[in-house]
């Protein structure tokens, strides 16, 4: 309840937080007005709560429906026509490459939050129909953080930007039936990842044993 203060004559009074001056009989009316103001504030708070709580519940339900217990589930929910190639899964972040359909190579990040795993945007581009990847032949990107492509003889090769070496994944990790169906025999994915990769430069392909330069490509 608001506090009431009066002057020494007992006639001029005011209630804290209520800018009213009372003269004798009007004091009761002022107290009533202030109480009504408090009541309106309480009803306003209740009304806001009645709107906010259902909105929060709907948001939580929507977030849960878009989240999954495993990163693979999140990717398949985004697009079921994928053959997944795991890059890594570290803490709350995972990187996957994938073959979409039979002839498109792509990549996607998957992030884990309070409700589970969610897939970021999926991007892909057509692969060379003849699978001619003896040398560096094109690259793809995912935002500013990832550059990748395909090569052959990955166990004997180094892919390099400046002083940084690419991570190389052998697609023989996939089931043999998938490798044969998608014509991935002898292919490797190379990729560079960083907080912000250079906006351009040269990628080199080197012989791992001799260090001999086998080819270059601008990106």
From TrEMBL:
Transmembrane segments: 43-62
Keywords: Membrane, Transmembrane, Transmembrane helix
Domain of life: Bacteria
Descriptive protein name: Uncharacterized protein
Originating organism: Filibacter tadaridae
